[in-house]
Design goal:
- This protein is of the alpha+beta class.
- The protein folds into four domains: about 160 residues; about 100 residues, 2-Layer Sandwich (Beta-Lactamase), CATH 3.30.450; about 80 residues, no CATH class; about 120 residues, Heat Shock Protein 90.
- It is about 60% helix and about 15% strand.
- The radius of gyration is 50 Å and the shape is rod-shaped.
- β1 and β2 form a beta hairpin.
- The strands form two sheets. It has a six-stranded antiparallel beta sheet, sandwiched between helices. It has a five-stranded mixed beta sheet with strand order 7-8-9-11-10, covered by helices on one side.
- α1 packs antiparallel against α2, α10 runs antiparallel to α13 and α13 packs antiparallel against α14.
- It starts with 8 loop residues before the first helix and ends in a 6-residue tail after the last strand.
- The longest helix is centred in the middle third of the chain and has 63 residues.
């Protein structure tokens, strides 16, 4: 090492700086190598090799330190070479050979070459060239350590390790927490810790206590607690909604607690909107129900008024005839009086002024048309008044249900006749029933109407609500 004393002080300081930097970079390379996930034995031996290389560089820095100390004290003294330097060289060489045999990487031979160049005994062999070889070895260690640090950094970023798993969980937007059964937190990501601070004002160290705090509603005043599908929902001050779910995991006969926090802001807003629309539909349904009941009442009132007028006309006619007969100066014709009195009840019971099924159907179309419901009829009612009136009653009940429950605006009625009988098909453009239909009320009443005549009723819910009635026999009306 005596050849270094011929170099200027500035050059020696540069060598000192390069040596110190090589020590720091190699120490970092050794730490990062110890944290890598070892897939095979060769990788673990590479980590041991980095450890010996660090000691080799430390010995070189010690030798250079002696040179600088002697240079500053103006003394040209031989540098002390101890057994430790030789030991490090032998250890590095042996470890390099082992790594070479296992990994088959010929570049590890450069480590042996660089180590041999730093031995002071090489000064005898190379003379004045030795300082340059020594400096070349130091620069090799520096470049190699930087290269190793870069490789290990990329491995840690791309390989699975405890650190990479933690970084991956922290990058999740969903809050995640794992704890022991007693609540001791094993792992919680950044999002869960952030939610803890917003909800309770601090980061909790017990998962069970935090979940009990949510369940009890003991949160900051700016937060509101609610429920969604049986789970706890917390509405934060920033108008976001988070659903907290607690589950139990079993791994190798040991149970753990998992708490997750999911952002359901969109779903929460849609649910609130659907609830509002449902309330509005309920109000409209009630109004529509009252309107339909009013239409039925007006229809009944009109028929009652017609019956009253018919009774008035018949009674007035008979009373006029009776009054004229009693006031006549001629002898009273008792046969005439008997015929007038006996036919009175028959005339009152007669259905001459009762509207026909066709008229009732036309009246039904007009009544519902006044509220924007279009009833389209294809086909003709049966000539038989009993069957025709039954079809009219079925259409009336079907239209009422379609408008009241399905908010239909168009009703499609089709009547077909064949040799087998009549086929009535009633469809609408209303909303489909949200659940399977349970017969009762209107549909059950229709079934009771058609079954005595040998008819059959069928109700289809999807893809469109359709009610069909098959009735045997009869003739098509004109």
């Amino acid at each position: 090492m005596t050849k270094f004393y011929a170099w200027p002080e500035a050059v020696l300081l540069s060598v000192t700086f390069a040596t110190a930097l090589a020590v720091l970079c190699q120490a970092l390379a050794m730490v990062m190598s110890s944290q890598r996930h070892h897939k095979h034995r060769g990788q673990s031996l590479e980590g041991v090799l980095e450890f010996f290389v660090l000691f080799q560089i430390l010995v070189c820095s010690r030798l250079h330190g002696q040179v600088m100390q002697n240079y500053n004290s103006s003394m040209i003294a031989p540098t002390k070479v101890d057994a430790f330097h030789i030991f490090c060289f032998i250890a590095v060489s042996l470890m390099s050979i082992v790594v070479l045999v296992i990994t088959k990487k010929p570049q590890v031979l450069l480590i042996i070459v660089a180590s041999s160049l730093t031995l002071p005994m090489m000064e005898v062999a190379f003379g004045n060239v030795f300082p340059y070889l020594y400096l070349t070895a130091i620069l090799f260690w520096l470049v190699r350590s930087i290269h190793i640090c870069n490789l290990r950094y990329r491995e840690l970023r791309t390989s699975i390790s405890a650190l990479s798993i933690k970084n991956a969980i922290d990058s999740l937007y969903t809050g995640v927490l794992f704890s022991e059964q007693d609540g001791f937190i094993l792992l919680s990501n950044a999002q869960m810790q952030k939610l803890m601070k917003v909800v309770s004002g601090r980061v909790s160290h017990n998962g069970n206590h935090f979940y009990e705090l949510l369940a009890g509603g003991n949160v900051d005043p700016g937060c509101q607690m609610s429920e969604f599908k049986g789970q706890i929902v917390c509405l934060l001050p920033d108008e976001t909604a988070w659903m907290f779910t607690k589950a139990e995991l079993q791994i190798k006969r040991k149970k753990y607690i998992q708490i997750t926090a999911t952002d359901i802001t969109q779903r929460w807003a849609l649910t609130a909107r659907l609830q509002q629309q449902e309330a509005e539909l309920k109000i409209k349904g009630e109004e529509l129900s009252r309107t339909i009941d009013r239409l039925h009442f007006l229809s009944w009132e009109r028929e009652t008024q017609k019956a009253k007028m018919r009774a008035h006309d018949i009674l007035g006619q008979r009373l006029t005839l009776l009054l004229r007969a009693t006031r006549s100066e001629q002898a009273m014709d008792y046969d005439l009086l008997r015929s007038l009195s006996q036919g009175l009840l028959d005339d009152l019971k007669a259905d001459k002024n009762i509207p026909s099924p066709e008229d009732e159907l036309a009246s039904l179309q007009q009544a519902f048309g006044s509220i924007g419901v279009d009833i389209k009829l294809d086909g003709k009612l049966p000539k038989d008044r009993t069957k025709g009136r039954m079809f009219t009653d079925i259409i009336r009940e079907s239209v009422t249900n379609a408008v009241r429950h399905g908010f239909a605006t168009k009703i499609f009625v089709q009547i077909n006749h064949s040799t087998k009988g009549y086929h009535l098909n009633i469809a609408n453009n209303g909303h489909l029933p949200p659940q399977p239909i349970i017969e009762g009320g209107g549909i059950d009443g229709i079934r009771r109407m058609v079954e005595p005549h040998g008819g059959a009723l069928d109700v289809i819910s999807h893809p469109r609500f359709v009610l069909t009635v098959d009735l045997p026999g009869g003739e098509v009306g004109v």
